[in-house]
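sanity check this fold:
=====
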Amino acid sequence: MSELINDTLILTGRHMRHIARVPEKLFGVTLGPVVMVLVFGYLFGSAMTVPGGGGYREYIMAGIFTQVMLSAVGTSAAGVAADLNNGLVDRFRSLPMSRYAVLLGRTVSDLAMTALSCVVMAAVGMAIGWRAHEGIGRALLGFVLLLLLGFGMCWLGALIGLVVRSPEVVNQLAMFIVMPFAFLSNAFVPPDGLPKWLQVISEWNPVSSVVSACRELWGNPTTRVSGAFPAEHPVLVSLVALTALLAVVIPLTARAYQRAAAR
């Protein structure tokens, strides 16, 4: 276990140092979310009304945070596919190190970048009027849920990268997979305007549960179309769904890595 932790820390540091050599990556993960906050807050905010009252800028922040967590799947997928194709994985196989540290180093470093995006977005969100009203503890619990979602997306991205192996394809494929979950949710638009069958899909969508949980924990405006269990207990449903995601995707990714490294 100590070897795994030590190797993971070394590889995480390696990936983070690579950002200093390619600072464009840092701009990509920080400026993109800032643009989303400003576009949704100012351009769409004036045209949207939140059912039940409340400002749209406070309503939309949980959705933007969640969208950024989902986008981590593309970052990890492209990184893992590139490592496979440039021979980095072969170099790691020749070294006396834990194989699982390769995946952990990649996913932990990608999660660190995603967490940095959260910090920047929170600062910009506060500048345009967003606040967490329920105390520091519940605010932090909301961010813990977001980071759990981001960690799950990093592992899902690693799995896609290992299976597809083409850096030109994995990013588009990853977005194709997560986009329906993002837009068939309550992240950006209150679901009460959707057809009934889409409302049901939206309320049982795990992304909606994470968004609603963050809004509830932060004291931000929220909407509940019906009395569905996920809408009434979003924090519990989010924890169960994210735990199940990690329990499934991590073993699958580890198995895919063993197959990819053996080729």
Q: What stands out?
A: The chain has a mean pLDDT of 85. The chain has eleven helices and no strands. The CA atoms of residues 82 and 88 lie 8 Å apart.
